[in-house]
Design goal:
about 325 residues, three-stranded parallel β-sheet, 5 strands, about 5% strand, binds adenosine monophosphate, binds tryptophan
Amino acid sequence: MENNKKIILSGIQPTGVFTLGNYLGAVRSWKQMQEDYNCYYFIADLHSMTIHIDPQKRRQQTREAFALLLACGIDPEKSLVFVQSHNKCHAEMGWIMDCCSQFGELSRMTQFKDKSSKHPDNINAGLFTYPALMAGDILLYQADYVPVGADQTQHLEFTRDVATRFNHTYGEVFKLPEGYFPKAGARVMSLQDPTSKMSKSDTNPKATISILDDEKTILKKFKSAVTDSEACVRFDPEAKPGVSNLMTIYSAITGKTMEEITAEFAGRGYGDFKTAVGECVAEALRPVREKYEELMQERTYLEEQMRRGAEIADKISRRTLTKTKKKIGLLLEK
Ligand code: AMP
Ligand code: TRP
C-alpha cells in the first residue's frame, strides 16, 4: 500500500454478532472508505480479554468477527484486515504505553468507571489499562484518522495526550490521530427502548437486529418495535424516539430524507411503515448473510487471509515499534 492516501484505522471487539447499529453506524462506512484511504481494520481480541468468555467461544467469535468484516464488504485486496493478537507488536507496544500512562488519567476514563461499577466482580488490571493498549494499536500504524463511536472518543483523546507527551519527552515518533465521523454514520437505538443504543450485549433479543437475522425474524422484530400512539410518521427524537429511530434506519438504507419519509407514509398507519423498514433492512442484509455463510464454510481461505493480514500488519507496525524502543532506550537485539 505504498501511496500517499491517508491512513484510517479501527478495531472492533469479537464479542458477538454485529448488530444493525454496528453495521449502519460503523462497518458500512468502513467499506465505503476503502476507496479513498489506506484502511487498516482489526478484530480487537486482546481488548475482549477484559471480560471473561469461555475460551472456545472466544476463538469462535474471533473467527466469526473476521468473516463478518469480509462479508460486510471489507476487501482484503484493498484493505488490511487482521486479528490483533496475531501481530505481536500490539502486546509489546501495549506495555510501553502502560508505562507512559498515568494512574490519574486512566482513573478518569468514563468507560472504566461504567464497566467497573457494572461488573464489580471482575475489575481486572486490563480493564483499567485498556486505553493504553488502544493507544498502542493506533500509534503503531501512524494512523491519520480513527472512526470511533461516542463511547470511544475519550480513549482517542487519551491516545493523543500520550503521543504528545511521548514525542515531547523522547522526540517525534508518533503521528497524532484524529477522530473520523462519517457523514452517513447513523446512530441506531434499541427497538424496545429507543432511548438507549442498540447494543450487542442487550439481553432482550427483540431489541436488536443481528446482521445475520433472516428476513422473517427481521420483519417480526420491526413489527414489535416500540413506537407511540400518535400514528404519524415524523422525526422528533425527543417526543417520538421509537418512530424517529425507525426513520433513521429507513433513511440510512434508502438515502431518503426525513421529509421524504414523512410524505411517503402520510395518512398510513405504523403497520405499513414498520413493514417497509423491515423489508429494506432485510434486503440490505441479505447479501451480507449469504456471503458470511459462504465464508464460514471456507476455513482455509479465512485462515490464509488472517495469516496474510498479520504478516502485513507486522511489517507496517514494526517500523514504529523499533523506533519507539530505540527512543526509550531498550537495547535492540542485533
Ligand atoms: P461495539 O459493538 O460497542 O464494540 O461497537 C463498535 C462500533 O460500532 C462503535 O465504536 C460504534 O461506532 C458502532 N456502533 C455500535 N453500536 C452502534 C449503534 N447502536 N449505532 C451506531 N453505531 C454503533
Ligand atoms: N476499544 C474499541 C471498542 O471497544 C475497539 C478498539 C480497540 C479500537 N483498539 C482500537 C478502535 C483502536 C479504534 C482504534 O469499540
